[in-house]
Amino acid sequence: MTSLNWGETLWDQWDRIQEHTEHGLEFTKKCQDFVRDRIKLEQDYAKNLRRLKKTYKLKNAEDDSGNFSTVKAYSVFLDQLESIARNHEILAEGLQDKVAERLKAVHKETTNNRKNLCNTASQLQQEYKEWQVSLDRHQQKYEKAAKEAETATQAFARVNEDMNATKAQVEKSRAQMNHRHDLMEKSKGDYIIAVETTNTNQHEYYHQRWPGLINQMQRCEEHRIDEIREVLQEQCSIHQSIIPHIQECIETISENCNNINPAEDSELLMEERSNQPYPPDHQFIEYGTAKPEPATFGAHNNSTRKTKRDKKKKMFGLQFGGSTDSVNKETFDNLPPEKRKKAFKEKIKEIEGKIAIQLKARTGIEEILELYSQKPELGSPGAIEESRQQLDEITRELDKLQEELYKYQCYLAALTDKPPPEKHHIGSHLQADTVSITSSMSHASHVSNSHTTQSGETEEPPLSPEFNTALMTPTAESTTELARDDHYEVPDPTLPPPLEDSPIPPGLEPNGLEQCNVLYDYVAQHDDELNIYAGEVLYVVEDNGTGWVKAQRSEFEVGLVPGNYIELIT
């Protein structure tokens, strides 16, 4: 702070001081308005960032495109916008609490102090004017008394020199002269006192009271300036505190952008999609023989197939008198591989829960029957027969649930390229059934939960090669049954069998659909395709002209087959 002060250097420039402090208050108000608008700007920026994230967030929850590196990086980018928005809200809160409120208090305090000092200055100036007026009044009174005394002296001299004047006139004139001189001396004394008093007050005014007031105004202004300095520094500190967090968000975005790999995305696409197989070679057709209807062959456009499938899904379900997803209700063919695994596991868990409930109910009935056997008097023959019927129903339901459980375990094993689990049959005896089902349940739980891979998937324990070979190779009995069916011929043992080998159940045959003969064997390469064998007869569900035909073998065996591998039956 400078050694000079306003009281010594600016004692005669009060109007300039008032103007300067007024501009200071206006500047403080402008800083206050700036911080207010800055806070609103930061809040709006955070709000707009969140709206931007919500608008451009990826919503294809059922699409596998979320596994691509570009989509992952983009998702991380949008997620980090939330953190950036939160940091800007923190900045706005800090400015509101530590800057805006302080500026408001400084402006209010400075305004009040300046107002009080200006009022004090006005009072001092008014006192100074009163001192000057009093001094002038005493001076005028003294001058008037002096003039009257001089006039009386001249009048006495004239009367005293007049020979005709009487003694009484002379004495009267002398008395008036003396009176006027006394009044003059009194006024003179009052005037001298007024001059001394005025000089004393004026010295105090210009050397103490007035400079002190101006110095107080200087300290008030310097305090305001110091507060402005601290407020501006506080703004910088608050803004600087969020920069590391925003920088961390930007680094996270940059790291994920560096993880974008075009080669991996291409490989991922090739894992999920592939081109259709090439058409077989043309065969020589002897003249005069029936010429098969030519099949169109086009590009294997998965996106077109998926769109067509979505458009025809409802119509296909209504044609067979069922729901739109009756075809895929067991095998979940309409789901991608990962979601399909999850659906199989949930279905297995659901069936295991039903089995556990049935086992608990059967155990209760077994205990009742055991009690009846020990104490026949407790139960009537009708109650015992009813309990046995309930036990038989529960046993049949357990057999059905166990078959369904084994079926879904096989589906899951085939989807994960694992050998199917060993099949456990549930008998119809009482205690033996309980032991068998309990061990089967323990084995099923062990199969689904024994191993966990690095990707979080459950891994079933491998079975013996003899069991795997026996499961995958058709037996003589099954081959004989297939040979008896008009719709089947013996398939090639080297081809993987479909999930269901039974023909269309009675009552579910699709009326009004065209039939086709299979010309060549074809192994399905996608989840929505169907294994076909040369010589068998299928039903044509849909032919959209893309080179792929949707065909049906049974209620749950519907899929796409190459159009040039089949021939319509006219």
Helices and strands in order:
Elements lengths: L5 H4 L4 H42 L13 H93 L5 H92 L3 H11 L29 H18 L17 H38 L6 H35 L14 H20 L1 E2 L5 E2 L5 H8 L3 H9 L29 E5 L18 E7 L4 E5 L5 E5 L3 E3 L2
Antiparallel strand pairs: 1-2, 3-4, 3-7, 4-5, 5-6
Helix pairs in contact: 2-3, 2-4, 3-4, 7-8, 7-9
Key traits:
5-stranded antiparallel beta sheet; 65% helix; 11 helices; 570 residues; mainly alpha; two-stranded antiparallel sheet
Q: Could you walk me through the main structural features you see in this protein, from its secondary elements to its overall organization?
A:
- By secondary structure, this protein is mainly alpha-helical.
- It has 11 helices and 7 strands.
- The protein has a 5-stranded antiparallel sheet.
- Strand 1 (451-452) and strand 2 (458-459) form a beta hairpin.
- The model is unreliable at 295-327 and 427-509 (pLDDT under 50).
**Could you give a short account of the major beta sheet?**
5 strands, antiparallel
Helical proportion, percent range: 55-70%
Q: State the total count of DSSP E strands.
A: 7
Question: Structural class from helices and strands?
Answer: mainly alpha
Structural Rg:
55 Å
Mean pLDDT comes to 77
Number of alpha- plus pi-helical segments: 11
Distance between the termini: 109 Å
Q: Spell out the helices and strands N to C.
A: HHHHHHHHHEEHHEEEEE
Strand order of the largest sheet: 6-5-4-3-7
**What multimeric state do the chains show?**
single chain
Q: Stretches where pLDDT falls below 50 for ≥5 residues?
A: 295-327, 427-509
Beta-strand percentage? 5-15%
Shape: elongated
